[in-house]
Hints:
Elements: H1 2-12, E1 42-44, E2 49-50, H2 54-66, E3 71-74, H3 83-104, E4 109-113, H4 132-142, H5 150-155, E5 157-167, E6 173-175, E7 187-190, E8 194-198, E9 207-211, H6 214-231, H7 237-246, E10 249-253, E11 271-274, H8 277-285
Parallel strand pairs: 3-4, 4-5, 5-7, 6-10
Antiparallel strand pairs: 1-2, 5-6, 8-9, 10-11
Amino acid sequence: YAHGTETTGVIGAVADNEKGITGIAKDSEIFFNGLVKSDSDFISKEEGTFTMSISQLEFSIRGLLDNDCRAINLSVAAYDDDEHNRETSAETFSEILCMLIHRYGKDFMIVQAAGNDSGEARNAGFFNSVDEEAAKEAIQRLGYEDEMSVEDVMGAKMVIGGTADKKTDNKQYQLSYFSNYGDAVDLCAPGVDIYTTKEVTSSGKSKYDTVQGTSFAAPIVTGAATLVWSANNELTAAQVKDILKSTAVNNVVSYTGYEKSYPVKENPSRTYGMVDAAAAVQKAFDTEPEKDKDP
Length: 295
């Protein structure tokens, strides 16, 4: 489906073929395991809304990990600002992360879009809802205290906000008017006017166009995580996350109201990091893998 074609192009579109674009991690091996299997899964194909069970999502992720995937892009969200539902989501997806780490180890990362609801990212469902307290409680419930830490669980997921092409007077980027925001957002990447692959035409010709949304910011970071692992394959997910965050340029400010129909909703003094893939790769070369460190 179109959405998968668009996000995949951002990550791994082929280079040097005199067509379209080059993906962030152009030499990566990509496995595609879409969550929408048929037209009957759609609630609205025009709006891109669909039904999906938690077990279906977990099965898809396990399928990717069974094929040794490291960086998993998840460009979906399901906004619900009911506090009870968010806590239930945090409990469920913390346990899923713990069980995945228990089975597959600590060297994979799920990179999820923050969502396009102009609200708190922690309410956008799935792994967006997972925080340190939920991770700690999940580890204890499952009896995994000797296997993993809260840092391991939090390192297995990242939440990505989308920036606009509108800069402030002092040349800082700002969060797009549609991007979800808040403490749950780990990092930002461009989310407007992203040129990428589209579904082929009826005649079989390649097609490209611009898209917008946190769905396309997330694969930029997924690609960057892939590059970090290509530079140092022995890093844990927590180390990769730390590298991406510590090398980011803190020049993304909160949405300032450039779209008059969308009021400012969050603290205007908040700043976010913009991913810097080149700096992250360089730091990866200089980072000692966790398993090689002295106890």
